[in-house]
Structures are given as structure tokens and as C-alpha cells.
């Protein structure tokens, strides 16, 4: 009896030990809250996270165009609090700056200070340790060769709040100026992105960061955080993080290397009646633009018929992938896919195959059809667009949300106005009409030449929001704002 009890107790102890070891160790959560200069794509976010050890879960909730006012009004602050980080690095100022543009998000300096105090109080109430960060300096050089930032007043306010509220402070504004003052203006431009001026000419973006800039200033913030909060020093890598392969590639293209972009999809992308020709037309000569999209194909049939293998053989650097129109019910078993199962599985196949070649996949949601009922746009591609967005989010893929962008334009139009985009009856529509014995209707799926240019530029303009290193290679397309 005693021997049995002892054996049972040993078994219990072993079981508890195994369960304890099976449970993953809880990581320290550090969260970024702020504007575009903190984001991953155009800010120092990815460089900051890369400089933290694997014991940290790095959360980036910074958002483009956010001020200390709009971040709260848009519900982003509540979302950031709900993630329950251990530490929160808070940086605003760029979009709070009073200027002629975007008056809805600007605040006075006094209100900016009050907003910071509220952020600190509410973070602490949620048992989060706030760390205030002064705004990253703009890279504006004077005739003396030194940086002259117009964010100095905001930096002073942040430091004042940090002192009075006993909050750790990372003085990124002062540190970034000190660093930039040792660079020439040309070298400083090598850390940033480009944008288009009012004439469509490519000029330096003195606010936002490319990959190299992200890792330079991200390291600066990580080290500054460790100095401000001593017990966080163990979570900062001892040596600066190096650019990953995708960052090295992006910098190569940003600096002018030739690029090959391959378009893959159905007839709404293809040369005859899709946005592909309009997209390729706004690429600079530095870009080889190949439109491999084919009429009538779905995410399934494009693979089954060997077209995908052929497209991969074009050895693109970037692949823009859009399906959905022919994946819908009624297209036949050789083409149809389910938006919750087979369609996303196919998209993941495309993404994996592109990445296996070392290229960059970009998912594009389907161009909206232009059919109206009772004066309202019929949005019949929602399920496939939603599936595309989900795959992009879960697999970390760049996304051009063409369905949302085209819908935003079309919902403001009447049927008659939208028909101004219609193609002369497309061969796909003719074939379907002939098969049913009917006269071909107006083609409200495909595009006439003017519409190809319109929606092609729309795709190009949104592409550089996700992949800003391509900005210099797009003629006249705008790069991201704050």
C-alpha cells in the first residue's frame, strides 16, 4: 500500500514537472505607440524590434498619420491598452504639428502636453510602464550643414512631462540630431525614403525611413530605452542587428538596381481588359514589367494549367497576385474555389512559391465589378477580398487592397457614371453570352484604356505604401504621408 502510494506521488510530481516544462515561458511585452516614424514600413519600428532579444514580444501599434489626438479618436489607444504590454514606448509630435494640411488631427502645444499626461496616467492605471520618447528629428539641413528641426518645442514638452510624472525618457530628438549633425545631407538622405513633389518629381522624404534608417534609429531607441529603464538592458542585443535579406534587397532596389515585377491573375489584370497595362505604363525604365495574367483563370486553374510555373520562370523580384473573379460559384469545378478553404490555401501556395525563389509576393484584392442595384453598388467579391486580406495579415505579406480602393470610388457614382470605365465587350463576356444564347451585355467587369490607366495608377500608388523602396520607380505615384 505504501509502495503504491509512493509510486503514485512520484508519477504526480513527474506529471506536474512535464506540464510546467511544456508551457512556453511568458515573454516580456514591449509595445510601440505613436505615428508613422515608429511604424515598421516607414519608421524605426522593425529596426527597434530587431534589436531586442528573443525573450521579448515586440508589438507595434504605431499608425500612419496619427497625432496624440487622432490616435485616441480612432480607437487605436484602446486597442493598444487591450494588448496588455509590460512596457509602452509612446511617441507623438509629427502629426500634432500645426500646419495647413490635416487640421483635424492637429493640436495646440498645451493640448499635446495634456494628451501625453493622459496617456501616462491611463497606461499606469492598466499596470503598464510608460516610456516617453521625444519625436525623431526631421532631416532638414541648414546652410551651416547642421540639422534644424521644427519639432524642438514638442521635444521639450515630452521631457517636461517625463520629469514631472517620473516617467522614463528616451530623448530621440536630441540623439537623432547629434547623429545627423555628423553626416552630410547626402548621407542622411540615404537613411530616408523619397516622395513626389507637386510636379511629380522624385525628391527626398526628410521624415520617413528606409530599411537602413529603421535599423539605425531603431537601435538608437532600443539602447536609449535600456539606459532609461535599467532592468530592460538585458533584453537589448549587445551588438546592433544587421539588415535581414529582405532589407538588403530593398535597399539595393531603393538605390537604383534594375527590378522585374511580374503580374499574375485573371482578365481584370491581363493586357486586354485589366489594370496591368496601366500599372506597367507608370513604371520607370528601371523596371521590367511582365503581365502574365490570363483571361478566365482562377487561383486554381492558373496553377493547374501550368501558367504559374511559367510565371515563376520569369524570375521576378516582385510578384503581384490577384484572383477572385473566376474563383466564384458558377464558374465550373475546374475553376471554383471556396473563400474560406481552398482559395486562401491557393494564395498561400503562391506566397510560399514566390518566397522560395527569394522574391517578394504582393497580394492584391479583386477589382470591384461595376453593377448597381437600386442605385447601390453590388459588392459580390467581398468574401474573396476578405480572404486575401486575412492571408496577407497572417502570413505577413504586402497587400494592395484594390477591392476597397475601387469600391470607394464606385460607391460615389451612378451606374451611368461607372459605365464610363466599361470595356468594349470583352472576349470572356462574348463567350459566356454565346454559350447561353444571349446577347453580350455591357462589360462591367473589364476596363477600357482610360480605366486601365486609372486603376493601374491606383495599384501603383498603393503598392508604394507597403513597399516604399519602389517609390522612385513609379512615375508620379505618391509616397506615404505622416
UniProtKB/TrEMBL annotation:
InterPro entries: RhgT-like, SGNH_hydro, SGNH_hydro_sf. Residues 42-213, 264-426 form the SGNH hydrolase-type esterase domain. This is Rhamnogalacturonan acetylesterase. It comes from Granulicella sibirica. Residues 1-22 form the signal peptide. Belongs to the 'GDSL' lipolytic enzyme family. The keyword Protein biosynthesis does not apply. One of its GO terms (molecular function) is hydrolase activity, acting on ester bonds. Keywords: Hydrolase, Signal. Pfam families: Lipase_GDSL_2. Transmembrane segments: none annotated.
Amino acid at each position: 500500500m505504501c509502495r503504491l502510494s509512493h509510486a503514485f506521488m512520484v508519477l504526480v510530481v513527474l506529471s506536474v514537472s512535464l506540464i510546467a516544462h511544456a508551457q512556453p515561458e511568458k515573454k516580456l511585452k514591449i509595445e510601440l505607440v505613436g505615428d508613422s516614424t515608429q511604424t515598421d514600413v516607414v519608421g524605426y519600428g522593425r529596426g527597434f524590434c530587431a534589436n531586442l532579444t528573443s525573450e521579448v514580444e515586440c508589438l507595434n501599434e504605431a499608425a500612419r498619420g496619427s497625432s496624440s489626438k487622432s490616435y485616441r479618436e480612432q480607437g487605436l489607444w484602446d486597442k493598444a491598452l487591450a494588448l496588455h504590454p509590460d512596457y509602452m514606448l509612446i511617441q507623438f509630435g509629427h502629426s500634432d504639428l500645426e500646419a495647413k494640411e490635416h487640421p483635424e488631427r492637429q493640436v495646440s502645444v498645451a493640448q499635446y502636453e495634456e494628451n501625453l499626461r493622459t496617456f501616462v496616467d491611463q497606461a499606469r492605471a492598466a499596470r503598464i510602464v510608460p516610456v516617453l520618447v521625444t519625436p525623431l528629428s526631421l532631416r532638414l539641413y541648414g546652410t551651416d550643414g547642421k540639422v534644424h528641426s521644427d519639432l524642438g518645442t514638442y521635444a521639450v514638452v515630452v521631457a517636461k512631462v517625463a520629469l514631472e510624472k517620473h516617467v522614463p525618457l528616451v530623448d530621440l530628438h536630441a540623439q537623432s540630431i547629434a547623429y545627423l549633425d555628423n553626416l552630410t545631407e547626402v548621407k542622411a538622405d540615404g537613411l530616408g525614403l523619397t516622395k513626389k513633389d507637386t510636379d511629380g518629381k522624385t525628391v527626398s522624404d526628410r521624415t520617413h525611413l528606409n530599411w537602413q534608417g529603421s535599423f539605425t534609429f531603431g537601435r538608437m531607441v532600443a539602447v536609449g530605452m535600456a539606459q532609461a529603464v535599467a532592468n530592460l538592458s538585458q533584453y537589448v542585443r549587445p551588438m546592433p542587428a544587421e539588415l535581414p535579406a529582405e532589407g538588403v534587397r530593398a535597399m539595393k532596389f531603393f538605390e537604383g538596381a534594375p527590378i522585374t515585377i511580374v503580374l499574375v491573375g485573371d482578365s481584370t489584370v491581363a493586357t486586354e481588359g485589366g489594370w496591368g497595362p496601366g500599372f506597367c505604363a507608370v513604371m520607370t525604365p528601371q523596371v521590367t514589367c511582365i503581365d502574365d495574367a490570363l483571361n478566365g483563370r482562377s487561383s486554381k486553374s492558373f496553377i493547374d494549367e501550368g501558367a504559374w510555373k511559367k510565371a515563376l520562370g520569369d524570375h521576378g523580384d516582385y510578384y503581384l497576385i490577384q484572383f477572385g473573379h473566376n474563383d466564384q460559384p458558377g464558374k465550373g469545378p475546374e475553376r471554383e474555389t471556396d473563400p474560406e478553404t481552398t482559395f486562401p490555401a491557393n494564395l498561400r501556395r503562391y506566397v510560399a512559391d514566390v518566397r522560395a525563389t527569394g522574391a517578394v509576393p504582393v497580394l492584391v484584392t479583386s477589382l470591384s465589378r461595376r453593377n448597381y442595384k437600386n442605385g447601390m453598388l453590388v459588392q459580390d467579391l467581398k468574401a474573396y477580398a476578405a480572404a486575401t486580406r486575412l492571408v496577407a495579415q497572417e502570413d505577413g505579406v504586402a497587400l494592395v487592397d484594390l477591392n476597397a480602393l475601387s469600391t470607394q470610388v464606385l460607391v460615389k457614382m451612378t451606374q451611368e457614371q461607372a459605365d464610363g470605365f466599361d470595356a468594349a465587350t470583352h472576349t470572356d463576356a462574348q463567350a459566356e453570352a454565346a454559350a447561353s444564347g444571349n446577347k453580350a451585355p455591357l462589360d462591367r467587369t473589364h476596363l477600357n484604356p482610360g480605366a486601365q490607366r486609372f486603376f493601374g495608377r491606383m495599384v501603383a500608388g498603393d503598392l508604394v505604401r507597403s513597399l516604399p523602396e519602389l517609390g522612385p520607380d513609379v512615375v508620379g505615384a505618391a509616397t506615404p504621408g505622416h
